[in-house]
Write a structure and sequence with these properties.
alpha+beta, globular, binds guanosine-5'-triphosphate, binds magnesium ion
């Protein structure tokens, strides 16, 4: 049977997973209602977090499909996948057109010599302009230096949500057959190679409770059998022996055990507890290792600590340093972009690819029953060839023209410089570049300044020379001076002074941050104070109080609004912000030091 390997790539939300689901459903590999976004967090957030493999049988072919995440924090994962496939479906929203992550994934595909198939998706949207989008995609190909062959890309129009694909907008179609036929026509099938010496290179890792670490990768050449002894080579040439205990291939959306892995297929192998991305698995010692696969460096870092709050241990099952350490060790088995420094006795220094990358780990941990507290995320600053350097990002902002003033002004203060600006009617698209440090904590400000209507995407560029001091307006915290239950009456008094994170009857402790202050300075308050009772009853006036609903903290929002002298406390039920030093006296003492 012929094998074809494709990845589905796009900007976030352009419809990769919906399209993959439709392909799987129509080929009978997936039941109605199921989705490739199978993880609970993915379903809840409606985004893909992990790249996933699946396959279908179509006519005489096996098509391996990798659905990739679109969020920029997971960009390096997409890059690794691209090394192992034969072509990509570049999905582009028929209204939004190419977006920053479209550019990133297309650039990587073109560099690898792939010939993308362009899928103009969501043509059912009322504001869709497929013709304009095709032109924009063409311009992007040219701008990114595509070869003539690559620029001569096939285009297909889709409504992924309805499972429809067509060659021309006017065609009648009721399923995805035109897309699948196009894949058979345009994607080269993997060429023989079974007679050569076996070589495979993992681009992803997986974990199984019984089998341990698994390597997911493409078999470049040869055949591998279960039970076979192998040689694992690092890209540097260093080698060590191993033994394959199990082989899985992808069959629909499930993995199925196989006796052998053949050239061209994407498989998963067990038995190599220390296998890592980019290593070459072979059966003969003399085989050349495949070129290295780069794993991107982390850009932000923060400390994970044992929960030290007065409410510690109330809600979580796993609270000790030992348990947190084991959990982080386990995470390192599969979370490729993550780094953990276990060197300190007081905290674990965790580094990742962005706030989203870290907050997903924290969200998973709390769901599993962990309690933890973390420090404020910081951009990683390091010395590169004697130059103090920090990560830089490019932001793409789509907003109404009238909002551009405050947005440009605040980002400029945070070290960002405009690189491009285009206007479409009442909408502007602004491109700016600046340090990651300046972007930390900015998203909430952006939402307010654009009244929730703006779109901001960022992507990592590179480490550049340290940008010097930047001016962020720090929000002040409203700190509780007492422990007990918050009362509606006192919250009602406080709500004019800023934004509250808690509602009446929430339990608070001394040093807990219960809201932020609009003036920007710190405020010590007592949310547990009740109304003075008197003998007199005012008629009507104090019967009911009008409370604004609180701005409850999520992990992501917490990480964003917290200050340097605070910890975010995360438990299975609550996300609380607190001062590192809980009492006024301790804070004053710490400040003097
Ligand atoms: N109108 C319309 N909406 C669609 C279509 N396909 C997908 N959507 C919607 O677009 C949104 C995003 O779809 P997803 O398939 O999750 O997008 P994705 O590219 O996988 O997103 P990430 O994996 O997070 O990058 C969902 O709300 C879908 O319902 C379509 O053909 N037409
Ligand atoms: Mg998706």
């Amino acid at each position: 049977m012929e094998i074809r390997n494709i990845a589905i790539i796009a900007h976030v939300d352009h419809g990769k997973t919906t399209l993959t689901d439709a392909i799987m459903r129509q080929s009978g590999a997936m039941v109605e209602g199921a989705s490739m976004d199978s993880n609970a967090l993915e379903r809840e957030r409606g985004i893909t977090i992990y790249a996933k493999n699946a396959s279908i049988q179509y006519k005489d072919s096996k098509i391996n499909i990798v659905d990739t995440p679109g969020h920029a924090d997971f960009g390096s994962e997409v890059e690794r996948v691209l090394r192992s496939i034969d072509s990509v479906l570049l999905v582009v929203d028929a209204q939004e057109g190419p977006m920053p992550q479209t550019r990133f994934v297309l650039k990587k595909s073109l560099e690898l010599g792939l010939r993308p198939i362009v899928v103009v998706n969501k043509i059912d949207k009322p504001a869709a302009e497929p013709a304009r989008v095709v032109d924009e995609v063409f311009d992007l190909f040219v701008e990114l230096g595509a070869t003539d062959e690559q620029t001569d890309f096939p285009v297909i129009y889709c409504i992924g949500r309805e499972g429809i694909a067509k060659h021309n907008l006017t065609d009648e179609s009721k399923d995805l057959t035109p897309l699948l036929d196009l894949i058979l026509e345009k994607v080269p099938h993997t060429e023989g190679g079974t007679e050569k010496a076996f070589r495979m290179q993992p681009f992803n890792l997986a974990y199984d409770n019984f089998l341990g670490r698994l390597g997911v990768g493409r078999v470049y050449e040869g055949v591998l059998k279960t039970g076979q002894n192998v040689v694992i080579k690092k890209p540097t040439g260093e080698s060590r022996p191993g033994k394959i205990t199990k082989i899985f291939t992808f069959n629909g959306v499930v993995r199925s055990e196989a006796l052998e892995a053949v050239a061209g297929d994407i498989v998963m192998v067990a038995g190599l507890p220390d296998i890592y991305i980019g290593e070459t698995i072979s059966v003969e010692a003399g085989v050349e290792p495949l070129p290295a696969i780069a794993v991107d460096e982390p850009t932000i870092t923060l400390n994970f600590l044992v929960n030290g709050s007065p409410f510690a241990g109330r809600e979580g099952k796993f609270v000790t340093s030992r348990q947190i350490r084991d959990r982080l060790m386990h995470e390192l088995e599969v979370n490729v972009g993550l780094r953990v420094d276990f060197g300190s006795n007081e905290f674990f220094k965790v580094s990742g690819r962005g706030e989203m990358h870290i907050s997903i780990l924290l969200e998973n941990m709390r769901r599993e029953g962990y309690e933890i507290q973390v420090s404020q995320p910081q951009a990683i600053i390091k010395d590169i060839d004697g130059v103090k350097s920090e990560p830089f990002e490019e932001v793409t902002i789509d907003i109404k023209s009238e909002c551009q003033g405050p947005v440009i002004e605040k980002l400029s203060l945070r070290g960002f410089v405009m690189s491009n600006m285009t206007q479409h009617d009442n909408q502007v698209r602004i491109l700016m570049e600046g340090p990651t440090r300046g972007l930390l904590g900015y998203r909430g400000v952006f939402v307010i300044d654009t009244r929730g209507e703006g779109i901001l995407c960022s992507r990592f560029l590179e480490f550049r020379k340290y940008a010097g001091e930047i001016k962020k307006r720090v929000v002040g915290s409203m700190v509780s001076m007492a422990s007990g239950k918050a009362l509606g009456f006192s919250l009602w008094n406080l709500q004019d002074r800023g934004v509250l994170y808690i509602s009446p009857a929430t339990e608070v402790y001394e040093g807990m941050v219960i809201g932020n202050t609009s003036k920007g300075e710190e405020m010590i308050v007592n949310p547990t104070k009740g109304k003075q009772l008197t003998n007199m009853r005012a008629s009507g006036s104090d019967e009911s109080i009008d409370l604004t609903p609180p701005a409850t903290l999520s992990i992501e929002r917490g990480l964003e609004v917290m200050s340097e002298d605070e910890y975010l406390e995360i438990t299975p039920e609550s996300v609380r912000l607190r001062k590192i030093y809980l009492t006024d006296v301790d804070r004053a003492r710490a400040k003097r030091k």
